[in-house]
Amino acid sequence: MAATERDASASGGETATASVVGASGFAGGELLRLLAGHPGFEVAQATSREHANRTVGSVHPNLRSLDLRFADPGDLDAVDVLFAAAPHGVAMEYIEEWRDLTDTVVDLSADFRLDSESQYDEWYDGHSAPDHLDDAVYALPELSRGDLAGADLIASGGCNATATILGLLPLHEAGLLEGAQVVVDVKVGSSEGGAGGGPASSHPERSGVVRPYAPTGHRHEAEIEQALGLSVSFTAHAVDMVRGASATCHIFPAETPSKGDLWAAFRETYGDEPFVETVAGGSGTYRYPEPKVVAGTNDAEIGFEVDPENGRVVTFAAIDNVVKGSAGQAVHAANLALGYEETAGLDQFGLHPVGSP
Amino acid sequence: MAATERDASASGGETATASVVGASGFAGGELLRLLAGHPGFEVAQATSREHANRTVGSVHPNLRSLDLRFADPGDLDAVDVLFAAAPHGVAMEYIEEWRDLTDTVVDLSADFRLDSESQYDEWYDGHSAPDHLDDAVYALPELSRGDLAGADLIASGGCNATATILGLLPLHEAGLLEGAQVVVDVKVGSSEGGAGGGPASSHPERSGVVRPYAPTGHRHEAEIEQALGLSVSFTAHAVDMVRGASATCHIFPAETPSKGDLWAAFRETYGDEPFVETVAGGSGTYRYPEPKVVAGTNDAEIGFEVDPENGRVVTFAAIDNVVKGSAGQAVHAANLALGYEETAGLDQFGLHPVGSP
Amino acid sequence: MAATERDASASGGETATASVVGASGFAGGELLRLLAGHPGFEVAQATSREHANRTVGSVHPNLRSLDLRFADPGDLDAVDVLFAAAPHGVAMEYIEEWRDLTDTVVDLSADFRLDSESQYDEWYDGHSAPDHLDDAVYALPELSRGDLAGADLIASGGCNATATILGLLPLHEAGLLEGAQVVVDVKVGSSEGGAGGGPASSHPERSGVVRPYAPTGHRHEAEIEQALGLSVSFTAHAVDMVRGASATCHIFPAETPSKGDLWAAFRETYGDEPFVETVAGGSGTYRYPEPKVVAGTNDAEIGFEVDPENGRVVTFAAIDNVVKGSAGQAVHAANLALGYEETAGLDQFGLHPVGSP
Amino acid sequence: MAATERDASASGGETATASVVGASGFAGGELLRLLAGHPGFEVAQATSREHANRTVGSVHPNLRSLDLRFADPGDLDAVDVLFAAAPHGVAMEYIEEWRDLTDTVVDLSADFRLDSESQYDEWYDGHSAPDHLDDAVYALPELSRGDLAGADLIASGGCNATATILGLLPLHEAGLLEGAQVVVDVKVGSSEGGAGGGPASSHPERSGVVRPYAPTGHRHEAEIEQALGLSVSFTAHAVDMVRGASATCHIFPAETPSKGDLWAAFRETYGDEPFVETVAGGSGTYRYPEPKVVAGTNDAEIGFEVDPENGRVVTFAAIDNVVKGSAGQAVHAANLALGYEETAGLDQFGLHPVGSP
């Protein structure tokens, strides 16, 4: 693809420089894809220790037309915005260094998602920069838009947590989660395992699976609990797709709402959201949220159904884990932090028909 | 494949004749596959109105080596055992006719699965042969083995109900389901839609899906309720495989059992079952039940995990919906009805590695 | 997705109106997706007899955010550019009518791809508007860019022909195809069968296939012969993807070129092409063209290898059949016809990682 | 699955002991699956250095019901038949040792497939036991059945070579390959890469591919040339399946045969073959060979078509690379070597419907 001139009007004519740390991973590559097409950013550096000096296209074949080589992480220069897509544990180690180089760090790892050291220690191993836990703004813009303007340390939400929180948020805001039993059954693609998967993620073993991989105790429960103030019963299954996360939430509220109540709640929460579409019944083939519809986009489809016999509400949330659940959410947060138009660089449509992206 | 001499010892040296009604469908073809390799059966007729006089191999390419043509359903002859794999509603219409032709009818449809007309009417439209509802033995052999010897009308259990019931049975027998909240989240392959799927099951639309298709109120709830005496909150998702059903049950018992309690319960229920394997943790890639492991076989893998934080037990059940959830279960029931060795004709291993059967 | 303001600079600030006939099909939906994001077009109407008055999003779930309903084809208004994505045979019937409504018709069907009635009759049934065969400009811009400026009837090339021609063009231009034996072995996704596939394209039958579906005599041979002046031995296989066409050409030239000769030929032909990337060896996982890398884009990856032992050159061409092989090529041609920047509206990147789009 | 009593009549009532070296790999696991269901073999040992003392089911989940643990290769005991499924290069190192332990070695690697050291050196690195090259019988039973009775060192044919040779054999025997140009375009599943694939075979990278992986110079060309006495132009593509190999051969004979000539040739070659089915046109969905139809079986489907315009014959060959292309072919050869019924232990049917095994 030949790059055309980008329209900088979405960013008010300004262009910020952006660098990506950990750019050879899946989230890092996706950041490069989104930033390369973003009117308000110019990519300065993309780091990778392993692939330093190789072209970005040698790892991410979709970016062959970019004239960009990986830099060594040690050669990182000052930049307007630093996006960090390194494995968990790296950001807390380098955060001081990074803050000397930039005004705005957007971290995609779990390092700064939780508010307090005690929460962190409950789900992960010890934190080496706990002072920053309180500084960081958790970025799930539908939840925390107000805190993102001018934020200088942003912790972009996790994929499964994002899908789950989006599926529960309207009920939360309508007070329907108080005291409710909540079961979350998530189905995810193989890109969640990252670029360096082990034997279980080799194609012959990983193909065709419906594989329980986090039957209980998934770490994303912590983010969900922090965001919504309730404990959910969470189970994740690996299914045969590369991109995509689908969260089905089974909620037993104190009182069962009607379908009309739920439409009202969803409209209230998502009516003005640029990246959330409510899909709940109707005609045709695609009546409920499906991850393949939003693959490659920052969109979330959220839907619901009522089961009056069992006093249950079911909600469905579908996202692309690499975009809305990771790099896209990070760019969305950066747009808000810098005062850009919220959808700048994130306005692609999904595909139809489409297989299993 | 060239047929070798079959070993009739598993059937005590006897061979019964068997015919298959509705043999051009997926369950009908699977019956033919299993009966052709069964030491105790000889296939007499395979009916199909649409394909009458064509070879069975022209529809089921895996059976090209069989020297057998479809017969018109009107030409059905007397036979020892009649397997009916017609769409729902056909068996109730022809049941009197069939009973004149055979001593043993094994029906794979939903027509005779429920015990009473009132139950039937609650979930389906009116029944035209309600007197037989009470006669029929519901065949999920792990549940009703004792009633199957000599049965003359057998209603083979539905695929999603089979997976769910097998996932809950040990808890049921251990008394852990009394008063428990139960959520069942099922993932199924496209063969459940049968051979004549509509636009939503065309490859470009059905590929790569994680598609909620029965968010609430699936008819298999009726079978589950009848079998276990409790109402479950059931939701089914279509995923990208052809064969396979995976049922994840989230159970909130009055008191949370330990993992040891559950091992004991599973051992008690399934310790001697020839077709059930308990898979619950351990090492390696395959630590919990996965449908691809049992594809093509009559086996069920059942597993569990405890979530003490949430007072939850999670069970996983994986079957091949066309075999254990349909044709294999029917043959298993026929083996028991005729006094054959229980596993006769059903002793294939699954495959490894394997993709998405 | 919320539509952001589009940058009209790529079209010199002008905006043309565009309507899509046959908009409920796969190519029609893709035209809508591309035009909705195109700075130089505004979609006026999208016709579908079957879905008239329904929202476009009810058929194409990726376009739910568009505020657009299908119009009845009988209600078509005058428009700047008319894109026709109807089944073969429709355009020749309506061409006179359409030319009264618009200055520029871009037809995606096979109706006007061949230059003469005699060629057409050799491969298809009789043509009802043969006078226009000569008028129409065959649009494979890499081949016919010069003829497209100001063209008023454009016949956009077929998907398999496009992949094959692109794979052979550099050799053709270097004179290496003269007298050469050429075998073309194509692998295609299920979207080529269109939205109304029959039983063979139902998910249970179409999944997992490597299915010879046009062993000999595919109609796209006609386009290839017309474009390159040679007859190729063409065979197509259906494989398990929705989007994508991959053409492997095995060429036995009079004299075997060196790899350097081929690099020179490819550079000569494609060095300045905005949508063609030469991928021939190198390091990493993606060393040759792969359709999944270009899915959703108008890009073509073309590669080659020399087999000196057998006096053979092998070329590989990978495209998205719905974009570069259909709707994208049509928009590219319209850009050239209207004097827009060539890449306007077609500058998306592909995805990585990505499964089977 | 519970093992039923096996019918030893197919082996004349005898049972031989068999051990499998390299049993944790894909071919090794498949040997165990086939031998466990074989009436004439009893599995003695299954070796794996890495997994010694673990259950076979911990690696091959389909074999969980087997009461068998991996033995260390150093603890190998004397046995009637030794099947070796180790990586290339191992068998040549241990061959002397193994021959002290057994009368019959069936090797699945490439080590003894070529007749002479000079051939071997042309395609592989130096051979450490070249004296055995001449002893070994190349086992593609349709080609070398006569040499297999009583053979004591059997080199089982490679998967891609097997598919190709089977697709060309009738033409070879009919003299149609003399001086013919032959192009072979092969599509293969990921199991060909073995259990220890690298980054390119991780699920996110390997899913959805149509990836040229051996554009020219595949080592299986050597086997093909040795078997048929002609050089073929061979190219292999990885496609998105786990099991399966499909070889499409494009042949330009001196004189183009008619379809009737080809039917006669195929009947002559394969009329009595127990594992080869000719599939060439006809009605229905499955008109030509497809690997998914034979997945899990030792069957090969072979078909053809004539392209008179181009003077071309196209043949199609579909096998399961792990069975007919590896472990099944080895067991077939052992059956012949020991004088067992040829199809003993290899009489499974494939599945329908089936996805992508």
TrEMBL record, chains A, B, C, D:
Its EC number is 1.2.1.103, 1.2.1.106. It is found in: Cytoplasm. NADP(+) binds at residues 24-27, 321. It holds the Pfam family Semialdhyde_dh. The active site is at residue 159. Its main location: cytoplasm. InterPro entries: AGPR, AGPR_dimerisation_dom, AGPR_type-1, LysY, NAD(P)-bd_dom_sf, Semialdehyde_DH_NAD-bd. One of its GO terms (biological process) is lysine biosynthetic process via aminoadipic acid. The keyword NADP applies. Keywords: Amino-acid biosynthesis, Arginine biosynthesis, Cytoplasm, Lysine biosynthesis, NADP, Oxidoreductase. It is an enzyme of class 1 (oxidoreductase). Pathway: Amino-acid biosynthesis; L-arginine biosynthesis; Amino-acid biosynthesis; L-lysine biosynthesis via AAA pathway; L-lysine from L-alpha-aminoadipate (Thermus route): step 3/5. GO terms for molecular function: N-acetyl-gamma-aminoadipyl-phosphate reductase activity; N-acetyl-gamma-glutamyl-phosphate reductase activity; NAD binding; NADP+ binding. CDD domains: AGPR_1_C_LysY (cd23939), AGPR_1_N_LysY (cd24151). The keyword 4Fe-4S does not apply. It catalyses: [amino-group carrier protein]-C-terminal-N-(1-carboxy-5-oxopentan-1-yl)-L-glutamine + phosphate + NADP(+) = [amino-group carrier protein]-C-terminal-N-(1-carboxy-5-phosphooxy-5-oxopentan-1-yl)-L-glutamine + NADPH + H(+); [amino-group carrier protein]-C-terminal-gamma-(L-glutamyl-5-semialdehyde)-L-glutamate + phosphate + NADP(+) = [amino-group carrier protein]-C-terminal-gamma-(5-phospho-L-glutamyl)-L-glutamate + NADPH + H(+). Residues 17-151 form the Semialdehyde dehydrogenase NAD-binding domain. GO terms for cellular component: cytoplasm. Involved in both the arginine and lysine biosynthetic pathways. Belongs to the NAGSA dehydrogenase family. Type 1 subfamily. LysY sub-subfamily. This is Putative [LysW]-L-2-aminoadipate/[LysW]-L-glutamate phosphate reductase. It comes from Halobacterium jilantaiense.
